[in-house]
Amino acid sequence: MSVHVLPHPPTTSLTPKPRSNPTADTASSTTSSPELSSYESSENGVEELSEPIISAEKLRQIEKMESNPDFLWMTTEEPHRSRRMAILKAHPEVRKLMGPTLTTPPIVFLVLTIQFTAAYLLRSHHPFSIPFILTAYIVGGTANQNTFLSIHEITHNLAFKSIKANKILAIISNLAIGIPYAMAFKGYHIEHHKFLGEDGIDTDLPSKLEAMILDNVAGKTFFATFQILFYALRPGFIRSQKPTIWHGINVLAIIAFDILLVKSWGWNSLIYLIMSSFFAGSLHPCAAHFIAEHYLMNGPLPTKEELVKDGQGDNEDWLIQGLAQETTSYYGWLNVLCYNVGYHNEHHDFPSVPWTKLPELHRIAKEFYDPLPSHESWPYVTWKFITDPSIGMWSRAKRLNKGDKIDHSFWTPSTGTESKIHSDKETSDVLAQDEEEEEIAYMSDSDKPKNRNKKE
Ligand SMILES: [Zn+2]
Ligand SMILES: [Zn+2]
């Protein structure tokens, strides 16, 4: 498919459109979302529930989606690469933000201390006692979500310059989780970045089977409650990894530590760590980032054909809406506990910028990020995901394989004059430099000598 290039950014198209939900019952409509229905003042001043705001067009889309749900199949490249290039052109100083931050290692050790202290103090409590479960949910769930995200940060080689040092820190951080995780996560996560949305490669995507089975409130509640198991088990079914020596070191280190823990403090301490990991990926405010990052929370998009036929827009409108929703950021306070993972558009655009500098990246390139839809609340994302029938496991953008590239000027902001279309030479220069820096955020030990030789 050929993609037309827009001369300026799709500011108005990117504003999330008001949604309605005709299939939700009145009670859930009024409590779950202020957008779903409305109150109007009647003549005597008493507020009455009005008819839900819903266009016939939207109703048709939702009915169609519900009778024959499917993923949003995109024929374009993921949006981050082109926006990254446009931002680097407009703000070359963004490069200065790239590279590791030494803020991460002390946080890793602080969180480990918190978790080990709690595991020690709870060693004599029954795992099903109230203090045990509450501590595992409030303290442990938050601490281990922070641990998952420290490993995410370290996976991008953003704690130390040395790749080996990053790997060792990731395995040390992994001790709080109780189950080997860090090295397997690295392989799958790099593919999530490089092949975002690609069916069968990006294991962040639900499979068709999951989407079919879990396509109702009970199924979505089950998914949100046991998310951690989906993320742990799905990759094994979809895409196997070639184990490396680091996978072995990771497994042995965690098993040895767990044995030591059980021998020293007893089974309850290990159960505390594992229960914390479960809550970290369950119905926990911080766990909502899993859904918030890439689910299309504005409901089904009209098809290209419908837009063209109804004269409401053209292919670009459809494309822009899809791209704008593919990744969604959250800028609220829970980012403090989660290594700013809410800055997810920014992170996918620049995986080599550490968590401490993502807010600065956002400030520098605000004309790119401010027009994009963002989430105001993570817990609300989970609530909406479960209760809104027009959103579910199908609400993901997928690609069969790499589509046509979108010209980077797609994201170039309007300056009031016609945007300058960069020459092919300029584009390839930026791309080469860009890729070199990006690779560092993805590198593993086995890549390093090869890539270094290539550059020299
Ligand atoms: Zn992501
Ligand atoms: Zn990442």
Automatic annotation (TrEMBL):
Keywords: Lipid metabolism, Membrane, Oxidoreductase, Transmembrane, Transmembrane helix. GO terms for cellular component: membrane. Residues 1-50, 415-456 are annotated as: Disordered. Pfam families: FA_desaturase, Lipid_DES. The keyword Transmembrane helix applies. SMART domains: Lipid_DES. The chain crosses the membrane at residues 102-122, 128-147, 168-188, 213-233, 245-265. InterPro entries: DES1/DES2 (IPR011388), FA_desaturase_dom (IPR005804), Sphingolipid_d4-desaturase_N (IPR013866). GO terms for molecular function: sphingolipid delta-4 desaturase activity. Its EC number is 1.14.19.17. Residues 66-104 form the Sphingolipid delta4-desaturase N-terminal domain. The keyword Lipid metabolism applies. One of its GO terms (biological process) is ceramide biosynthetic process. Belongs to the fatty acid desaturase type 1 family. DEGS subfamily. This is sphingolipid 4-desaturase. The lineage of its organism: Eukaryota, Fungi, Dikarya, Basidiomycota, Agaricomycotina.
